[in-house]
Amino acid sequence: MSILKQQIEQHCRIYHSEVVAMRRYIHANPELGFQENNTANFICKKLDEYGIPYKRNIAKTGIVGLIEGKRKDKVIALRADMDALPIIETNEVAYKSKNEGVMHACGHDAHTSILLGAAKILNEIKDQLDGSVKLIFQPSEEAFPGGAKMMIEEGVLKNPEVKNVIGEHVLPTLEAGKVGFRSGIYMASTDEIYLTIKGKGGHAATPDLNVDSVIIAAQILVALQQVVSRNAQAWIPSVLSFGRVIADGHTNIIPDEVKIEGTFRTFDEKWRKEAHEKIKQIAQNTAKAMGGECDVRIAHGYPFLINDNLLTEKLKRYAAEYLGIKKVVDLDIRMTAEDFAYFTQALPSCFYRLGTKTKGKEVTNLHTSSFDIDENALYNGMGLMAYMTFRQLEEML
Predict the structure, then answer these.
(1) How far, CA to CA in Å, does 12 sit from each of 47, 130, 138, 144, 327?
(2) Which of 300, 315, 340 is the last residue of a domain?
(3) Helix (H), strand (E) counts: the chain
(4) The pairing of beta strand 293-300 with beta strand 191-198
(5) How far is CA 297 from CA 37, 197, 276, 361, in A?
(6) Hey, is 268 helix, strand or coil?
(7) Are residues 180 and 213 in the same domain?
(8) Which end of the chain is more exposed for a tag (fewer CB within 10 A), N or C?
(9) What's the pLDDT band for 1 if we cut at 50, 70, 90?
(10) Which of the residues are catalytic?
(11) pLDDT grade, residue 75 (50/70/90)?
(12) Looking at the structure, do residues 18 and 57 belong to the same domain, yes or no?
């Protein structure tokens, strides 16, 4: 194992500056979901440079590369997402976003660069690989319906058939140099809730002539809290939160309607379905009891993400071999969501976390205008991904 580790680390030392430069280029040129045309062109140029064959325009802007090792019947897929977020960046850095209102605030620039770095390493040692590696550069993780589902539907896990899928995500609360794993359920399913409360608007000084949509909306918001607190089984983590309320009236105007938008997240498909019905019943019946109506639309989003126990424990062991046991941590479940979940529902897969926090520096969270990473994490990121892939192919039956 030490010879393999030394070999990969040598490549990492040589390629680290290149991976940093790639990450900065992608960060400075962010693109929203299914619009990652420049990013895709950049990736294809790099794959051409490395001599790795690929197919593009999968799920619109997605790319799939293939590194063929000694065996063609054992295939692992490595996935990175490419899209950015509609956020105005406030960081004053040389690689600040050039696309106003669009920013890599979730680390997808790092994911893509790390996968390119790992691909370059694996391609250079492919004669030693006891199998083959698919490289999945996925569009639109951040918005429904998500690029993962579309890529799977377009056959990304076939020809050749994939046995395992591995993905990683930066974690700004974990110190750079460390990595985290969790077997079993890890990230929640996610659904978007859209409520339109309809009343009868009018002058605020004549409430007897109105059906107050604002008051109905307030009652619905309070009543819906019992969906989780009084209906969910205590051992099933669940969240129902509302982040947008639009009551476009005035100080003396009651509007005809109010719009409410929120999210529901959990880890159990049976309860997920039941909760949708509870939301509809409570919202509609509350509105009806107060003389109004409520239209309910629930956008069924990503499933929950479940890491395969056997694969995850093996990758955790490989990570300890590569980084040292003290650098490998156990993760708690998260109520955030990821469309990598579609891969975990299709095949034994693992989604792990790469620490990107600079020691002694305040954490800047994901999806914020000041998000950034410690670029030293890219060094371990590409090396660990290459090492774990090599070892899993080596041990795979």
Answers:
(1) 17, 21, 24, 35, 18
(2) 300
(3) 10, 16
(4) antiparallel
(5) 32, 12, 10, 42
(6) coil
(7) no
(8) C
(9) low
(10) 83, 141
(11) very high
(12) yes
How many whole angstroms separate alpha carbon 26 and alpha carbon 322? 28
Tell me: do 270 and 335 sit in the same domain. no
Count of CB atoms situated within 10 Å of the CB of 326? 9
0.85 cut: is pTM over it? Answer: yes
Tell me: do 271 and 360 sit in the same domain. no
CATH number for the domain including 202? 3.30.70.360
**Same domain for 132 and 278:** no
> Mapped to the 3 state alphabet, what secondary structure does 298-367 carry?
EEECCCCEEECHHHHHHHHHHHHHHHCHHHEEECCCECCCCCCHHHHHHCCEEEEEEEEECCCCCCCCCC
- For residue range 240-285, list pLDDT tens digits in order: 999 999 999 999 999 999 999 999 999 999 999 999 999 999 999 9
What are the pLDDT digits (tens) for 176-203?
999 999 999 999 999 999 999 999 999 9
